[in-house]
Amino acid sequence: MRMKITCIQMDIEFGDPSKNKQVVEAEVTKAIKEHPDVIVLPELWTTGYDLSRLDEIADENGLDSQQFLSELARKYKVNIVGGSIAKKSSDGITNTMYFFDRNGRCVGEYSKVHLFKLMDEHHYLQAGNTKGLFTVDGASCAGIICYDIRFPEWVRAHAVDGAEVIFVVAEWPLARVEHWRTILISRAIENQCYIVASNRAGSDPKNEFAGHSMVINPWGDVLVEASKEPTQITATIDLDKVAQVRKQIPIFADRRTDLY
Ligand SMILES: NC(=O)CCC(=O)C(=O)O
């Protein structure tokens, strides 16, 4: 099974959800001309890291963002991995990702499990507690968020649960772009899965962001990689490659779960 995937590597207007929604609508309308099966947005694309204003600008129960993304998915008959948004609920504010199928149905939700202290997330956000598993056109997938990639055991847990494609949405700064590249390629090789990583471009008052959105195959080959500028990247992935690589070097069968 083949799947054409487009990552939207956009700049994000600091603390301005309505402006960012306009940008996403325009970018999705542009992306759809190439007929992708899946469109992927970056982390916190509605607000950016305007954390001190989240009380005011976070999305109440994520409803507004869900409706917006659902309508786009249904209108264009495309699966959407909806980056993440700041969701405000009675449990506090979370950095939350939604997944939509071609009918605009929300097929999964994931809230960032590892909060990134270097960017003050722990002062403003609550961590999630569940995995981000979902399916796209029948393929087993997972979604995780930015700093989560530094935890190989968390990514492995999704692969052990069957994920063949892991979507990473991010606001990863340029200062650590080599970590970003190396970690993503490593996660693809060690889990023998596709990694589809959508990072933001541009800057905010504290950081310049790396861009370098990437699609990596289960052998660790980079199929496509963006520059640091706002852009879109597209790759067609072949799900059969996952089984092929896992058969060639059967690391899942060879794991010593009696030892670790
Ligand atoms: N938004 C994030 O989680 C950034 C993570 C990051 O920059 C890192 O180095 O890790």
Automatic annotation (TrEMBL):
One GO term in the molecular function aspect is:
hydrolase activity
Q: Which CDD domains match?
A: nitrilase_5
> Per UniProt, which keywords does this protein have?
Hydrolase
**Residue limits of the CN hydrolase domain?**
3-239
Check the record and name the InterPro entries matching this protein: C-N_Hydrolase (IPR003010), C-N_Hydrolase_sf (IPR036526), UPF0012_CS (IPR001110)
What parts of the sequence cross the membrane?
none
Q: Member of which family?
A: Belongs to the carbon-nitrogen hydrolase superfamily. NIT1/NIT2 family.
Q: What is this protein called?
A: Carbon-nitrogen hydrolase
